[in-house]
Design brief:
Radius of gyration: 15 Å
Number of strands: 5
Oligomer: single chain
Strand content: over 45%
Structural class: alpha+beta
Number of helices: 2
Helix content: 10-25%
Strand order of the largest sheet: 3-2-1-5-4
Length: 68
């Protein structure tokens, strides 16, 4: 596949799913955030695509495989 078609193919047919997950933020560094959602997990900031606060609960938008 040539360049533009491979990008479009990955975007349309990617099996990776993105989800909003409710978390409790425990600690933050320059490169990662320690969150709790049943277990403590370090999530690199480069893998977090959005953070929102809804009804006093933080939600992060990331790949489903990142949260577990």
């Amino acid at each position: 596949m040539s360049w533009p078609y491979s990008i479009i193919y990955r975007f349309l047919y990617s099996s990776e799913k993105y989800i909003w997950s409710q978390v409790r933020i425990l600690h933050e560094t320059n490169k990662a955030i320690l969150v709790y959602n049943g277990m403590k997990t370090w999530i690199p900031k480069s893998q977090i695509y959005g953070i929102k606060l809804r009804k006093n609960i933080f939600e992060i938008y990331t790949k489903e495989s990142t949260i577990g």
